[in-house]
């Protein structure tokens, strides 16, 4: 009898725990996001005292395989961490406006020339003053490097010193995204004197002009940053110390927020906001980003029906990106064209040719291509919300008579399958791009001759490549040029843009008063961390 | 002489085991799907950058040569360089070992301090007609619930209700021992559930086996008190299987630490290995598995010595049994 009672007791306890869990996760009453100021999710309370230690948790460390060299950094997580110590000539303000940083202003005597007036009194964290030679050397080094960002700087013809305090950049032809490209970490100004005399190796040492200096870094464990006392912007940074813990498990980050172990954490799961609903003093905000998910259709796989543009167009028509945004991303993402939704000048995804076509038309295209019973495998990585997005895609395409088998792999296996061989062996795959801060920048990845990493599954479309180049060279009437790019990419459909990828940030309102932009182009949640005020010592 | 032969035999068999493990793990990491270059360098890497990476870590050489170089370096105490952090793997393992060791020691202590008394208690109180359903149910539950399920449940509950214990953070023992303990108790508890259950069950069976021995009956006949009998006659004679179990469980717990450290975000050897497998960081995976195999081997030797000390009939010097 006693074992039965015990079993009942254990079952009741487990049930109670499960009910408690359910009770906390099914309270879908997300509070309307507060608007601190136009373009901001939160603005740090400047009345609070400076100083203190800020404990942060992020899900992934920098991709340190290429070391700390900012010019070789190609992922947003690395930009986020390196931006604490390195700075660029210009930066991105709220709503993607380009603002001065190490250059206090710039002139554009013509549409191919930029003259940057360097800020005076800027020093590297070793105490040496930044010079025009550092700026010229840094940009030349970037252009000569194997960095993917060298291509984003555009057709630079010449970089010269124009007196002690000015740098002149001449382009071969007009290039609209130039300033936006200069605003990201790979274009950081490096201590070129020390790099040239080999007293500093940027792969192993962070020596920048930024608000923080690295005191300690253990890969995949933690970073400790101390304030740069010689920082040019007097009054910043507010916090003396930043402790950044790398916590891959979302549940551990949520727990640290709940118990005060972390004052701010980045979150990846759309359900995490609900998990934190009702948590005392924890605020959850969603930062809109220009990053977006996209579907890759391998047109180079021998014998694949996906090589036929009609089949790919049918898939594009059958996809309901609004449903993906609503169901898989909890309404936080937005449908997008290849110019990221939310960026000024981006195309309206509802105006794309495929958006106006019906499911019957998709079936008609499949019939014309002889692919009525089309079936293929969609290869995805197992990080949320990719599986949820894939499931909605599967259901969407089922309505057009297309059978999709989802193959879920760990990220390493996924990378190997998608990028490891040319031609690639997958049928279809899903990933996401950083969308950057100008609508023309990410469109370059639709040209496999520029973006070699796509050459294993994608044929160049000369017309699309021409339109992409034209849109980036055209300061006037750019909206029309970008609309042409979007329409052509929609018809090509080798990479189909889906929905934007929002970023969720949670912080302890009793421990921290942060500043956060409402939108972000370079995935940098910590962009304004130098402004953040610590409310109580931790 | 017999002792020397015993040690020589163990050393040879240990070396052979390690060699076998080294071949298996070296082959296994290279057979894993997904290339190291795409994972380590990311999708934007050019073919030239991938080739440079392969050359830097000797991965462009024939596999047999790679294995030979690696084995030679390991024999000299060099476990290689992590492709991700570009730091020596040996140094990072050493830095992380204290976390895993502390977690394991706490879990083993819980197993012994809770599992053994529980086993003795249930054995002594067992009815001649059988019974013991309670013990079986509890130990059955403990053995069946995987660490990642229990760990996730504990993280969830203790993130909603702090209850004085922390999850999601870790503080070094050297910095603040009390705060460190507050972050280590829950992971250790999750890790120890399996071993407590198995220890309790094994102790119970061992004690029940000894309780029916004639010398115990004689002690009862002499009028000795039940707890005197347990302390002086039962425990030592029942200890052999329990010690063997605790030893092997200790090595098992190091494996369980992989999951628990990851779930609780502890910077130990386990989480290092989990991340390394995910990123195809070959040198780290190879060194970590070799280290785990080494721990298993050392634990087995220690168990043999300890069992011999407890029961000389089973010891190293006991001679060959037919």
- Number of folding domains of chain A? 3
- Unreliably modeled segments of chain B: none
Radius of gyration of chain B: 24 Å
Q: If classified by CATH, what would the architecture of the largest domain in chain B be?
A: Orthogonal Bundle
Looking at the structure, the CATH topology of the largest domain in chain A is Dipeptide-binding Protein, domain 3
Task: Profile the largest sheet of chain A.
Answer: 8 strands, mixed
Order of helices and strands of chain B: HHHHHHHHHHHH
Kindly report the name of the CATH homologous superfamily of the largest domain in chain B. Answer: MetI-like
Write up this protein.
Chain A is an alpha+beta fold and 538 residues long. Chain A has three domains: 40-45 and 211-289 and 502-534, D-Maltodextrin-Binding Protein, domain 2 (3-Layer(aba) Sandwich), CATH 3.40.190; 88-197, Dipeptide-binding Protein, Domain 1 (Dipeptide-binding Protein, domain 1), CATH 3.90.76.10; 292-500, Dipeptide-binding Protein, domain 3, CATH 3.10.105. Chain A contains 15 helices and 23 strands. In chain A, helix 14 runs antiparallel to helix 15 (478-492). Chain B has two domains: 1-76, no CATH class; 89-310, MetI-like (MetI-like fold, Orthogonal Bundle). Chain B is 75% helix and 0% strand. Chain B has twelve helices and no strands. At the A-B interface, helix 1, helix 7 and helix 13 of A face helix 2, helix 3, helix 6, helix 7 and helix 10 of B.
